[in-house]
Write a structure and sequence with these properties.
The complex is a heterodimer of chains A (about 100) and B (about 180). Chain A has three helices and no strands. By secondary structure, chain A is mainly alpha-helical. In chain A, helix 1 runs antiparallel to helix 2 and helix 2 runs antiparallel to helix 3. Helix content of chain B is about 70%, strand content about 0%. Chain B is extended and about 60 Å long. The chains are: A mainly alpha (about 100), B mainly alpha (about 180). Chains A and B meet through helix 1, helix 2 and helix 3 of A and helix 1, helix 2, helix 3, helix 4 and helix 5 of B.
């Protein structure tokens, strides 16, 4: 009888992906790459949700992933609009140069 | 000889972690975006393995198909492909960050593998459970039990769309 993959393996994989996302947010200077690392972190959380939905046979885990994806899409739209607007005045999206409140 | 599911899991996990590392270390923003698309596709296959076919399709359509296309569009609009100024100010920062990250990972693994969750269903081997994550059952829960969050999400998307339009409106044209 073939067994299923234990849920702990999925939690461990999600932890690795989350850590790589956090490393990307902390080390990168390009605003778009920081944004992409945040998406990677959200993705790893989605993986854990679906893994636990399978573990406890609860569909709520998958429904929550659905809502996380919708919210992530909205966040990306607004965030990229902000980056485009900042680029218009500053001509740069390097995080080191976006250090003034005005403009 | 490990089972087919274990082999598939480790192969996909290697590709997922490899593409995430590619996102972290690549010098070109477009390469990084394509690595992220690969990561999303691999996670969609994981969702299939976990008995969530609807969520897997939504992942491919929304994340890899819409969000990443939006990212690539903005990258090419702003001309940010070649990343300038990624040189480090503190040369000892990167090796220290790597070391501390590995220490943190080991600590987390000790915590994760100390708890057991009991047996889980294997969707690869048990085809009788195929209506667990199917669109029918997800639609049933979404429109009956979670109707209010569903409607609020539609409001959220409307507000996000309005916000994006208002933020990028050209103000000089408005004054003229």
């Amino acid at each position: 009888m073939l067994e299923a993959i234990p849920t702990t393996w999925f939690v461990a994989l999600s932890a690795i992906l989350f850590l790589i996302g956090v490393a990307g947010v902390l080390t990168r200077r390009n605003a778009i790459l920081i944004f992409m690392s945040v998406e990677l972190m959200l993705n790893s959380a989605n993986l854990v949700f679906v893994a636990f939905a399978r573990q406890f046979m609860e569909l709520s885990g998958q429904i929550f992933v659905f809502f996380v994806m919708a919210v992530a899409a909205a966040e990306v739209a607004v965030g990229l609009a902000l980056i485009v607007t900042i680029f218009r005045t500053k001509r740069s999206i390097s995080m080191d140069e976006i250090n003034q409140l005005k403009g | 000889m490990p089972s087919l599911e274990v082999i598939i899991f480790f192969l996909l996990a290697a590709i997922a972690v490899g593409s995430a590392a590619g996102l972290l270390f690549s010098r070109n923003a477009v390469h990084a975006a394509l690595f992220l698309v690969l990561n999303f596709a691999v996670v969609a296959v994981f969702f299939l393995l976990l008995g969530a076919p609807f969520i897997a399709m939504v992942q491919v359509t929304v994340y890899a198909g819409a969000i990443m296309v939006l990212f690539l569009f903005v990258i090419m609009l702003l001309g940010a492909e070649m990343l300038l100024g990624e040189d480090v100010m503190l040369p000892w920062q990167r090796p220290l960050a790597l070391l501390l990250g590995v220490v943190f990972l080991i600590a987390m693994f000790l915590a994760i593998f100390a708890t057991g969750y009991g047996p889980a269903y294997s969707f690869l081997n048990d085809p009788a459970l195929k209506e667990f994550g199917s669109p029918v059952s997800i639609g049933n829960e979404l429109f009956v039990k979670y109707l209010l969050p569903f409607e609020l999400t539609s409001f959220l998307l409307l507000v996000a769309m309005l916000g994006a339009v208002v933020l990028t409106r050209d103000e000089k044209k408005k004054a003229a």
